[in-house]
Amino acid sequence: MSALRPWSGALSSSPGRGSGSWRCLWWWWWVLAVGVAVGSGDPWMSAEACPSSCSCSSTRISCVDPERGINAFPVLQSEAEMENITDIYIANQTSFSSINDKDLHYYKNLRNLTVTSSRLTYVSKLAFQNNIKLQYLNLKDNNLSSLSWRIFRHLNISYLILSGNPLHCSCENMWIKLWLGEEADTQELRCIEDGGRKLLSRLTLPNCEVPMVTLNPAKVTIMEGENVELSCTTSGVPSPELIWNMGLVTNYVIETSGQISVLRLSNVSSLDHNSKISCTAENIVGEKESSLLLDILFPPKITKLSDAISDHHWCIPFSVSGNPVPQLQWFRDDEVVTEGLYIMTMIHDITEREYHGCLQLDSPTHLNNGRYRLVARNKFGFDQKEVQAHFMHKPWEDLTTDGPPVEPPEDRVAVYVVVGIAAVAFTGFLLMLVILKFGGNSKFGIKGCVLFQNIPVEVVSR
């Protein structure tokens, strides 16, 4: 008998299966590794999904290896993977020089971005147009000489770190001083001027200021159908660009001459009530905005009056517009509806120009059935609409219907079930009578029972 050799497969029950224990062991190690990755809540991506020069998890990308460097932001295998990324960290990348328009397009949920100790020299004004959740931006120790405020105009950045960049003491970078305030000194942020460096917080430049803008008149109240003229005046150095922002149904014309622009509205539509009109002046230092809301007066209009619907309460839905706010009154069959605890007008939603609500009725009866008319009125006119509402049948309507009364479907089913059970029971009873009457003549009937009656008692006792 030969001795057992280590790892000889002696634990196997048959030849040729010694490697089964190894396969089982490796399988359990694989299960353990997957379990740890899933349990950690931040599993690492496969090598195929992550660029070879970076390390990736489901929410983070880190590229810090200077030898296997990158020259642009990593692109993962699918858009879904990139949308899950919230944190990108890039450092020590000597070939990384720019952030372009589409580089971060698919990183929609990006919150933290760090590009440090690299050679970043350019950031596009549209670099973060799709990253509205970005809150932390660290561009420390790069080669940025200037940075435009327009890059961040739509963002709500909480932290911006720019120290260690060769920023120029130029008007284009003045916004950084104004935006960071005391934080500029905390970062020891400096700019280059005449070959020397100075604290950015002490930068003062002539002819470099945030523009000013004035919209006149500051408030507009106008009757529907009338015309109105607005003028926007700007000032500042460098000379600012003037931009009107609005979304109107009303026809308009814009005329601009120098730093004054005139907006003319003709035949003003009530659909533009509470619409915002803004005039913005911007230059390389920053922007200023002046705006107003159109106050358009117009008579009421009932845009919707629908059939009564039953929810927690009965409700007759309506939508009404008008400025000033219309007064509402209800009529049922041409009689004024007295509102109180059980019948009341409720406004559920208010938009720019409409009021949405319902006439709410708590447990109405047949006495509340009828033709309901809504009248909306303000000092410029009125509007009315009506709808038929039916809440409950009259109690005596069921007694005056023609023809025999019809049982509810449930009652008919119950009757059929009872009759069926009775028929089955009666049939079984008749079969028992037949068996008892003719069973004595059967070879397998009563005679079979007699056999037990003729067995001696002693046999039974045994």
Properties at a glance:
alpha/beta, Immunoglobulin-like, 7 helices, 27 strands, 17% helix, 33% strand, disordered N terminus, NTRK, membrane, LRR_dom_sf, Neurotrophic receptor tyrosine kinase 2
Structure, briefly:
Keywords: Disulfide bond, Glycoprotein, Membrane, Signal, Transmembrane, Transmembrane helix. With 462 residues, the chain is α/β, with parallel strands linked by helices. It has seven helices and 27 strands.
Structure description:
It holds the Pfam family LRR_8. This is Neurotrophic receptor tyrosine kinase 2. Keywords: Disulfide bond, Glycoprotein, Membrane, Signal, Transmembrane, Transmembrane helix. The chain crosses the membrane at residues 413-436. This protein has 462 residues and is α/β, with parallel strands linked by helices. Among the domains are: 55-165, Alpha-Beta Horseshoe (Leucine-rich repeat, LRR (right-handed beta-alpha superhelix)); 212-297, Immunoglobulin-like, CATH 2.60.40; 306-395, Immunoglobulins (Immunoglobulin-like), CATH 2.60.40.10. Helix content is 17%, strand content 33%. Strands 13, 15, 18, 19, 20, 21, 24 and 25 form an 8-stranded mixed sheet that branches. A 6-stranded mixed sheet has the order 1-2-3-5-7-8, with no helix packed on it. It has a 4-stranded antiparallel sheet with strand order 12-14-17-16, with no helix packed on it. Strand 16 and strand 17 (260-266) form a beta hairpin. The longest helix is centred in the C-terminal third of the chain and has 30 residues, at 409-438. 20% of the residues are buried.
